[in-house]
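User: quick one - fold this with calcium ion bound?
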Amino acid sequence: MSKWYKEAIGYQIYPRSFNDSNNDGIGDLVGIIEKLDYLLDLGITMIWLGPIYKSPMDDNGYDVSDYYSIAPEYGTIDDCKNLINEAHKRGIKVVMDLVLNHTSDEHPWFIESRKSLDNEYRDYYIWAKGKNINGIEKEPTNWASFFGGSAWKKDEITKEYFMKIFSDKMPDLNWKSKAMKKDMFKMVEFWCDLGVDGYRVDAVAHLDRAEFIDSVGEEKYVQDWSKISNLPKVFDYLEEINNEVLNNYDMFSVGEVGGGANLDSVLDYVAYENNRLDMVFTFDHNWRNNGFDSCIDEFIQEVDLLSLKNDFARFQTGLYNKSWHALYWLNHDHPRVMSQYGNIEHHNLSGKMLATVLYFMWGTPLIYNGEEIGMTNGDFSDISEVRDISSINNYNEVIKTHTVKQAMTNIRISARDNSRTPMQWNSSMNGGFSESEPWIRVNENHKWLNVEHQLNDSNSILNFYKNIIRIRKSEYKEIILYGEFELTYKENKRKNILIKLKTHLFLPKDTI
Ligand code: GLC
Ligand code: CA
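Assistant: Sure. Structure tokens for the protein plus calcium ion:
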């Protein structure tokens, strides 16, 4: 297998927010094609597309209702073929999001599965009976879901519960089912045949679950991710996918393992000899200055610089020569890194500082759309402007015990929508993203913070990114991409190196 991905310069596109070609307010595939030359000019050689499959969009496409067709608002399968073609013409590889942990509840498999206990699709999903505690029926376990509430939902038709570790409309697939796996492998093969070059495997850590035993904890639903994360069978499933499909292609795979995966567990996923994944996204560094949609008590927390440095160092040192690693500051599930570690008064320098810190390490960069111009968190002023189901759920919890103002501050610091506002192409209406009202509001700062402006300024963050990318491809490639990492100033907490800067610098003055 060739190792092209090691020298790739990756770029994550959030399709809904990248570029709207037909002015319906929603980004689309033709819109992405229109911007391929921009990406080429930046030096990008690989794009990762967030999910573009047909979906009721409860979770912006991660709730797939048909893996074989494109969401109509994004385009058609022909648009997708065109996109792959046009990208390849420019030497850009295309990586698709692969959602294996769950489907939408509107997927035909689930529609069948819920019909009866003996339906042939029943075991495609994870069903269990409720518990009877002193005559009161309870969920099969007290496990929490990532998006709030229980990890189970009762289905009235058969009176059993299905597992759903994300939203109520995203039932979890049962990887113990041979028939389900076979259907999945067929689908994975379909996209390989269509010409995609790799997969970003969504929520991969969760494909195996512990026995259904309650977790210890005071809360009604206990956030015990150990019951659903990095368990042994995950690794077997990944080997199977490779043996059945991916090894027959020159494919690359990066898995989302999230937070809390230690070095050994990451090595289980990515060590060269294991034939499982080429690299993973860990979340530890993303969590250093905010909670995941739940940082209400922590929003004045300072950057923990030592831990942040250690998060990077742990993998840079521990994976060296044993595997490969993804270099990324943020993705669509995290606030903008400029708002976490940057300073709006020193916007230009902050953006350059962030790029310098990360992109001289070894690994494959994955730049998140807008990061290359230093986009900031959204400027939401009311919950009605927020679209993400997990943030809305969280907000509704928070206002039970906090003021609306505090709950909104929490949103503006930690909500996933902060990184999902439309790409800021120029200073015109809606930042040049669309001529109609976008599905989520464009940040007002597009008037000065936009691609066009930075293209014309040789000292901009955007041009700095171009330079770093050029250097990574130059004669310094050997040392930057393959050289060993050494953390200097290990104990140095000096705030003026990576700045203590609190996130509120990006909020209007009266927010906190
Ligand atoms: C991953 C995705 C996230 C999604 C979740 C459920 O974490 O990145 O956006 O909500 O999986 O698919
Ligand atoms: Ca559109």
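One thing worth noting: The radius of gyration is 22 Å.
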